[in-house]
# Entry
Amino acid sequence: MKAIRFLFIGAGLTCVAHINDAALGCAACTGRSDSPMAQGMNAGILALLGVITTVLCGAASFFVMLARRAAAAKAEQPPKS
# Structure
């Protein structure tokens, strides 16, 4: 049991010791706003905003369509006596 724990601790320390500096922070954290990583991050943010906008517009148009159909169905019904 102690040998396995020692093995995992040693492997973890070895992994921590060999971390590349690029893995420690993104381009915004390290202050390089003109790097390709920052440009890719900005493109990803814009793509996600586009997806969210498309989904929200689709949901809104669905509810507008339901409201129009309900109003049209109500207008077609004869008034109750």
